């Protein structure tokens, strides 16, 4: 659906800009290439943006043992393990499938969560792996960025286009208006799709994580600490925020859209559901 959405945008934007209809073929090539790249390389892009560093067992035996034990219980392969040097409490998982998965935690989570809380957080992230949420959300995050980029390119091109093209055709004028409307609305629509998917998958990962540990209170307690932690995660951005176990922006000024378009369900609601299990 995203490929069709991106192709439609390129078609409308190219027509509205006065280019030949052959750009539809280019639209298919570009959207296909973006889908291919997001499928195979989105995890590396996300890890790079997050400044995450891979570690080995000797670097943090406690973290490795927890991940190994949970993977044995879940019956999945042990993913690569990364750490972000940041005192904020957070974690995320990424990768296109369980064979190419990555679990990442901040140093703040490792230092400030006890064993049962950290286990609950890791079980949540491994549930994303088991449920294939990592592939879904990684692809979505890249494609949402593509939509925003296309809209930005089109709006900027309006400054340089030949306005005489549209004066000779009512159809051209209508397409131009449609193009401008789509350029304004498409990033919002794409973001709303992304956030709706993200919120639903967070509830599922909470439930799956609690089933894996058989101790919902561990994750509930961790979420309480995360809610009380007012420190934002410095490496997070709007493209990767939905991947984390909780909103990494912490209602800090400069991230107003994190409040308008929430990437996660309310923590209080998540805690309430976990403690009712």
Short description:
By secondary structure, the protein is mainly alpha-helical.
Write the layout of secondary structure elements.
Elements: H1 2-16, H2 23-50, E1 53-54, H3 61-74, E2 80-84, E3 91-94, E4 102-106, H4 107-112, H5 115-130, H6 133-157, H7 164-167, H8 170-213, H9 216-228, H10 256-260, H11 267-275
Parallel strand pairs: 2-4
Antiparallel strand pairs: 1-2, 3-4
Describe the protein's architecture and organization.
Helix content is 65%, strand content 6%. With 277 residues, it is mainly α. It has one domain (2-275). A hairpin with a 7-residue loop joins strand 3 and strand 4 (102-106). Helix 1 runs antiparallel to helix 8, helix 2 packs across helix 6 and helix 6 (133-157) runs antiparallel to helix 8 (170-213). The longest helix has 44 residues, at 170-213. The chain is elongated. The chain starts with a helix and ends with a helix. The model is unreliable at 252-260 (pLDDT under 50).
């Amino acid at each position: 659906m995203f490929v069709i959405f991106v192709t439609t945008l390129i078609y409308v934007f190219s027509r509205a800009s006065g280019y030949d209809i052959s750009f539809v073929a280019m639209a298919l090539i570009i959207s296909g290439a973006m889908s291919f790249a997001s499928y195979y390389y989105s995890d590396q892009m996300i890890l790079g943006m997050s400044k995450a560093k891979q570690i080995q067992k000797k670097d943090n035996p406690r973290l490795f043992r927890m991940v190994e034990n949970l993977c044995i219980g879940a019956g999945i392969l042990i993913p690569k393990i990364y750490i972000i040097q940041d005192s904020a409490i957070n974690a995320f998982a990424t990768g296109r499938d369980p064979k190419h998965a990555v679990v990442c935690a901040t140093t703040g989570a490792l230092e400030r969560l006890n064993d049962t809380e950290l286990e609950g957080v890791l079980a949540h992230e491994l549930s994303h792996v088991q449920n294939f949420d990592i592939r879904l959300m990684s692809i979505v995050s890249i494609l949402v960025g593509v939509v925003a980029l296309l809209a930005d390119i089109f709006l900027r091109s309006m400054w340089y286009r030949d306005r005489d093209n549209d004066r000779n055709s009512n159809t051209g004028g209508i397409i131009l208006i449609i193009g401008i409307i789509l350029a304004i609305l498409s990033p919002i629509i794409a973001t709303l799709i992304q956030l709706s998917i993200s919120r639903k998958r967070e509830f599922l990962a909470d439930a799956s994580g609690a089933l894996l540990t058989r101790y919902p209170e561990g994750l509930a307690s961790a979420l309480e600490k995360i809610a009380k932690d007012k420190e934002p995660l410095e490496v997070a951005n709007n493209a990767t925020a939905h991947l984390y176990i909780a909103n990494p922006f912490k209602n800090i000024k400069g991230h107003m859209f994190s409040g308008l378009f929430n990437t996660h369900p309310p923590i209080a609601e998540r805690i309430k559901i976990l403690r009712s299990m």
